[in-house]
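thread: overnight batch results

M.L. [08:02]
morning all. the overnight job finished for the chain we discussed friday. pasting input first so we're all looking at the same thing
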Amino acid sequence: GTEVNTRLLRTLYGWHGHLLDGSNDNAEIPLHKEFFTPSNIVSLLQKYGVGKNLDVLSVDCDYDDLYTTREILVNGYKPRVLIIEYNVNFGSEWAVSTVAKPVGEELTLRWRGDCYFGASAMALIRLVEPFGYIPVYSNDVNLIFVRLDQAQKLGM
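M.L. [08:03]
and the structure it wrote out:
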């Protein structure tokens, strides 16, 4: 709950929402101890009453970010701002990703602390563009997208 993309929004601006983490929980913020995968992310969002039109959604699952994000978007969730962890080691010109984990084995296959995780920036851009998102910022860890209708309102 202290090293997350949304911490400053919570501590400085009073934003609230749900955080999911496979190892930790803290009811005060609220951080839920939940290991999320592409096959269970939608049911977890429903479990915690997350609305389809949310302000910010950050996806960082250390392995299958592309597949998790796809499930969220295909199921009609439309965050105004979308933050997704990406793998800078894959380069910026190729649309590549890790191989999807077989359903039922998501909890046994995990990131091993090496360079094989996630997806390239181009793979994520190609995934989210048909859902109406444009990239607005990146660093060596995250891509930040804004829904096109929101970007147009802001003159971006």
